[in-house]
Design goal:
The protein is an alpha/beta fold. It has three domains: about 60 residues; about 60 residues, no CATH class; about 140 residues, Endonuclease, Chain A. The chain contains eleven helices and six strands. Strand 5 and strand 6 form a beta hairpin. Helix 3 crosses helix 4 and helix 9 crosses helix 11. The protein is elongated and about 90 Å long.
Length: about 270
């Protein structure tokens, strides 16, 4: 191929050494990209894969990032979350184990400084969640507010001298909503801590019920709540709030529980 032989050094310099795209090389040589691709094949030069080519295009300004400046709609987020959840659930035990091992390998490949930085970020996120609320609390609160309800976040002193705090409180329905993560049901930090947590939950629940409040306990058994789970949870909670407000439950039925697991939210 005469063109490739004549411009060999220029093609190697621009494409290999300077990491320019085939489009940029073609422009410099006054031809078109497909011809440069044929030249690369003729000269035995390995072409960059799609990911590498995209990185080059973005860094040179030839292309814009497909999501830069764009806001993903809630519907799109739900579809992405559902697809990821479906993909994760469909993994074989072998694939699941391999992914877990890859995560462990990445952790062990980090330097002590990198591991400590990651721990610090996790601790900071936990502190921020305790102050501003978990993702589940914030999503549910926003959903209820959007549907016309007053929601008091991390409400204190519902019962005088009790020092209680509830995650979400709806004064119109006299409803206390508690979102309990896995540590309320599973011995993630040991059996002793679990027993103390459950004893505290029972005392808190009893005080609220004895003082005339309805308690909605949400058993969030999964550590991570996908958008699909949050949507399902918010839908069933809103239905229950409407029912509680329109038909206040009798004294012995003022404890309501919902379980969220495997992408579903259901009353138990």
């Amino acid at each position: 191929m005469e063109f490739a032989r004549r411009h060999k050094e220029t093609i190697i310099d621009l494409y290999v050494n300077k990491e320019q795209s085939t489009y940029a090389v073609a422009e410099a040589l006054g031809t078109y990209a497909s011809k440069i691709i044929r030249c690369l094949n003729y000269l035995g030069i390995d072409r960059r894969n799609y990911k590498e080519a995209q990185k080059t295009a973005l860094s040179t300004g030839r292309a814009e990032h497909p999501t830069k400046g764009k806001k993903t709609t809630d519907e799109a987020k739900r579809k992405i979350a559902s697809a990821r959840a479906k993909s994760w659930r469909s993994l074989s035990d072998k694939d699941h184990a391999e992914l877990c091992q890859m995560s462990k390998d990445r952790w062990h490949s980090m330097s002590p400084e990198e591991q400590q930085e990651l721990r610090n970020k996790a601790l900071s996120a936990c502190r921020e969640a305790s102050r501003t609320g978990s993702r589940s609390e914030k999503y549910l609160r926003n959903h209820l507010v959007e549907n016309g309800y007053t929601v008091e976040f991390h409400k204190r002193d519902l019962v005088p001298h009790s020092r209680l705090e509830v995650d979400l409180f709806l004064p119109e329905a006299r409803l206390a909503i508690e979102i309990d993560g896995p540590t309320h049901f599973l011995p993630l930090y040991g059996e002793e801590k679990l027993q103390k947590q459950q004893a505290a939950d029972t005392i808190k629940q009893g005080i609220l019920l004895n003082n005339g409040y309805t308690v909605l306990r949400i058993r969030q058994l999964d550590k991570n709540m996908s958008l699909a789970k949050l949507v399902a949870l918010s839908k069933i909670v809103l239905e229950m709030v409407i029912d509680i407000q329109n038909n206040p439950p009798e004294k012995d039925k003022r404890l309501i529980e919902i379980e969220v697991t495997d992408g579903e939210a259901r009353r138990i």
